[in-house]
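Researcher: I'm preparing a figure for a lab meeting and need a structural model of a single chain. I don't have an experimental structure, so a prediction will have to do for now. The sequence is pasted below. Please return the structure as C-alpha cells so I can convert it later.
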Amino acid sequence: MTDGKGATLESNRLLRRGLALEYATLGWNVIGLGILAVAAVGASSPALAGFGLDSLIEVFASVVVVWQLKGVHADREARAMRLIGVAFAVLAAYLVVQLVIVIASGVRPSGSALGIGWTALTLVVMLGLAWGKIRTGRVMGNPVLRAEGKITLIDACLSGAVLIGLVLNALFGWWWADPLAGLVIVYYAVREAMHALKPEPGAPGEATA
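Model: Understood. Here is the structure written out cell by cell.
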C-alpha cells in the first residue's frame, strides 16, 4: 500500500513537472512571437520571420502535449503522436521553402541587435527545456512528451542557426548563412516526423535519439 501510494505521488510529481515545462515553453514562445515580428520587420529578415513561424509550431506542439498529459490514455497518446509528427513535417517543409525563397529572391536583410539578443536567449532557454522534457518523458514512459522535447531541441538548434546567420550577416554581410544552416535541421525534423507518424511495433510513437 505504501509503495503504491509512493508511486502515485511520484507519478503526480512527474506530471506536474511535465506540465510546468510545457507552460514555460508556451509562455516563452508567445512572447517571442511579438518580439520576432518587430525584429523581422525592422531588419527585413526572412530568417527572423521564419523563426517566428517555428515558434508558432512550438506553441501548437506544446498545446498538444498539455492536452495529452491532462488525459493520458492509449487513444489520446496515439492521436497526440500523430499531431506531433505533423508538426515535425510542417517545420521541415517550412525550412525548405524558406531556403528556396531566400536564395531565389536574394533578399539582403540588415543587422538586428534585437534579433541577435532574442535568438541567443532562446537558444539557452530551449536547450534547458528540451533536456527537461526528454528526461521527464523518459522517466514517465511518455513518448509524446519525449517527442515534443525533440521539437524543442530542434527549436534550440534553429535558434542557434539563425543566431549564427544573423551574426555572420552583421559582421561580414553573409546574408545566405542562416537559411543554409537550416538544412541540418531539415534532416532531423524529417527523421523525427517519420518516427512519430510511423511508430515501430511495440513502441508506439517512439522516436530514436
